[in-house]
Amino acid sequence: MMAAEYGSDDGVIATNDDATSCKACAVSLGYWKDPYLPHVYPAAPDRRPPEINRGFYARTHSIFLLIQKFIQVTKGDCQIVNLGAGFDTLFWRLKSAGHTPVRFIELDFSEVTAKKTHYIQRSKALLQAISDDDYDIKLNRNNLHGFRYKLMSTDLRVLSEVEAKLEESEIDYSLPTAFIAECVLVYMCPTKSSQLLNWIAKKFKSAFFINYEMVNLGDRFGEVMLSNLRSRHCDLQGAAACATLQSQEDRFVQEGWAGAEATDMMGLWERLPRADVSRVMRLEMLDENELLTQLFSHYCITTAWTDTRWTEITL
């Protein structure tokens, strides 16, 4: 699958299972509704601490609201590209809420897309949502082409491969396009992630980027996070860009983006709809708010744009 120079990606691929299990736990406790998640993660989820559940709620809900706004501003005349999408169910949740872009493309390692393709094939609910009477779904072991939804295997570090898979997915470079990356760039060496960001900025007429990632890794809490990930064979090659909120913004501006804004999850937690935040806070008791504050101050969402129209897309 990968060029030998990259070595094993097993540790990074395994983070998808961990993240999906965390989402499944939060959904089972009522943090948000996702009737599609059990179709791609049929196993019973392990119980997670309350701060982890709230963290995944803040992450998932923030990204959903930002993408929802992007679709609304463009009146649906747009594309979404989910980089390293894993078993994410965003396409199905958006469609059920009435937010359907022209095209929704997911890219990930072939090991991940093969499993997801298998789960989609087995699920009537997932298949129905991507079906169209005038368009036959095309699929093989690693890839799936629906009318609007496309699932493609690729290595994001190989630009020629990324471009080929996007064009196979009938990408339209002239349409407003939102990119999503959740803890993806941090696993790439800076040269490769910079090349990817630069290519997107140059290739797409109007691009918007949502990047969820670590930040403030220089303190003791950040060092423990890094150590824990390394023990699971996840080397954060791109950790330098996660040093501060400013460094998260700079990585985009330096690669040709018109602007960027990074906000830690504590700041975003305070911007989420207060009635819903109050609801989720009642789901579980949290003995130490300090744990949640520490966690939220070490993750952030950065939005970046090549078109100043997208500066209005905020929480």
UniProtKB/TrEMBL annotation:
Which protein family is it in?
Belongs to the methyltransferase superfamily. LCMT family.
**GO biological process terms, semicolon-separated:** methylation; regulation of signal transduction
Q: What does this protein do?
A: Methylates the carboxyl group of the C-terminal leucine residue of protein phosphatase 2A catalytic subunits to form alpha-leucine ester residues.
Family matches, as InterPro entries: LCMT1, Ppm1/Ppm2/Tcmp, SAM-dependent_MTases_sf
**What organism is recorded for this protein?**
Hyalella azteca
Gene name per UniProt: LOC108678900
What is its EC class?
transferase
Pfam name, any one: LCM
The record's catalysed reaction(s) read: [phosphatase 2A protein]-C-terminal L-leucine + S-adenosyl-L-methionine = [phosphatase 2A protein]-C-terminal L-leucine methyl ester + S-adenosyl-L-homocysteine
User: Which protein are we looking at?
Assistant: Leucine carboxyl methyltransferase 1
Keywords from UniProt, A to Z, are:
Methyltransferase, S-adenosyl-L-methionine, Transferase
| Recorded superkingdom | Eukaryota
Q: Supply the EC number(s).
A: 2.1.1.233
Instruction: Name the Gene3D superfamilies for this protein.
Output: Vaccinia Virus protein VP39
Which annotated residues bind S-adenosyl-L-methionine? 59, 84, 155-156, 182
GO molecular function list: protein C-terminal leucine carboxyl O-methyltransferase activity
Please give the GO cellular component terms listed in this UniProt entry.
cytosol
